[in-house]
């Protein structure tokens, strides 16, 4: 039985860090720096080398500290591998009805990708836990507010183009979380194994989110 996804961890810091194509030898160190900073949710994409092994490693080691998910799940085959690896949540770049329905049946949180109002509504109506608005890079934060005017019951997580400078802007418009990739895992810093610099980046994200919410607790 997989460790259950923790909504409390997600709500505490609703930033999903997306790890793609990071060398195996750095995964565990990055996760430690990530968790120690106060960030709580990590996604490893299934099109990364050894994704299943790394998902399983982190799911075991960081149980109760991090939600560990599988991203870029495009098929039921991908989903089966992710669940076997103990992924606690599933993220897709597309709407695959079979994947969504299977996650709903197994009570595994599913964040399917969608872009237009019709796609967003379809993903939600199929049982999405949250809809990944993707790609958000060409969309202004106000798009969230416009979508939520008629679809105020939908939980949206923009991904793609989300950065330190703008992530709270999307949250201010009603997004319930954000997905962030390269800004949280800068290739040069990781290649240089500058874990202090990486921790500084994470600390800045955490502080900005806490300032945004008015939270004073560390």
Q: Any overview of this molecule?
A:
Helix 2 packs parallel to helix 10. The chain has a single domain, classed as TIM Barrel. By secondary structure, the protein is of the alpha/beta class. Strand 1, helix 2 and strand 2 form a beta-alpha-beta unit. It is built from ten helices and nine strands.
Gist of the model:
With 218 residues, the chain is an alpha/beta fold. It is 44% helix and 14% strand.
**Residue windows where pLDDT falls under 50 for at least 5 positions:** none
Cross-sheet strand order for the largest sheet: 5-4-3-2-1-9
Radius of gyration: 16 Å
For the record, the CATH class is Alpha Beta
Overall structural class, as computed from helix and strand content, comes to alpha/beta
Any idea what the CATH superfamily is called? Aldolase class I
Instruction: Report the sheet-strand fraction.
Output: 5-15%
Mean pLDDT across all amino acids = 96
Number of domains: 1
How does the major sheet shape up?
Answer: 6 strands, parallel
What's the SSE pattern? HEHEHEHEHEEHEHEHEHH
């Amino acid at each position: 039985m997989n460790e259950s996804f923790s909504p409390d961890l997600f709500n505490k810091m609703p930033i999903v860090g997306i790890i793609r194509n990071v060398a195996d030898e750095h995964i565990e160190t990055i996760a430690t720096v990530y968790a120690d900073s106060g960030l709580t949710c990590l996604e490893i994409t299934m099109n990364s080398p050894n994704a299943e092994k790394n998902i399983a490693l982190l799911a075991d080691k960081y149980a109760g500290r991090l939600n560990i998910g599988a991203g870029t799940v495009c098929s039921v085959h991908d989903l089966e591998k992710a669940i076997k690896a103990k992924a606690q949540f599933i993220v897709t770049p597309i709407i695959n009805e079979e994947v969504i329905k299977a996650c709903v049946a197994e009570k595994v949180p599913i964040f399917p990708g969608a872009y237009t109002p019709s796609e967003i509504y379809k993903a939600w109506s199929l049982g999405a836990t949250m809809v990944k608005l993707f790609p958000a890079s060409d969309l202004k934060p106000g798009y969230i507010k416009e979508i939520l005017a008629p679809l105020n019951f939908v939980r949206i997580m923009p991904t793609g183009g989300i950065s330190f400078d703008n992530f709270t802007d999307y949250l201010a418009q009603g997004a319930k979380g954000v997905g962030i990739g390269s800004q949280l895992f800068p290739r040069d810093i990781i290649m240089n194994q500058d874990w202090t610099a990486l921790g500084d980046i994470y600390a800045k994200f955490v502080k900005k989110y806490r300032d945004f919410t008015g939270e004073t607790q560390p």
